[in-house]
Amino acid sequence: MTEHQTKDGRTFFIRRPDENDAEKIIQYSKVLFTSTDQVLTTIDEYGITIEEEKTWINNSLQNPSAITLVAEMNKEIVGLLFFGPLGKKKNCHTGEFGVNVHPDYQARGIGRALIKTLLNWAKENGRIEKVFLNVFATNTNAIELYKNLGFVEEGKHVKAIKQISGEYVDIIQMYVETR
User: Among residues 106, 111, 132, 131, which one has the least CA distance to residue 121?
Assistant: First the structure.
């Protein structure tokens, strides 16, 4: 567990979750999925049980090339990051992550701290050489953060997302090398 400060001076912690966090992660995810259209999952698609969440947490903990992180403030989850490697011998040196921050805590440095923690872990891990992500082209704040952390655009999936409104959104793939 590492201690961090938000831009407004509040303390939060970043740590790996355990089974006891399953219900909190589910509740956090429900808030996130109902608050934004900048994530792939919609609330009506999200039906994870506590047992399934525990399995997901444990699988991440047991995989030396994967990591899940939670940001916690006042015993409440305020951010979540998951990184998983690609599964074949020829591409297991790479992996994809997703990160999100509770809508009430965005733009305070929590996402940045989660990503920096991931990148430090990847450098120390020794297996991971390239970290990448997919981001909605409309999520300009996130794109700016990723660029600020050294990520570069490597591709675009045109009309990859069709919002509930019918609007199409491109997906931008970005990466950073960790070696």
Answer: 131
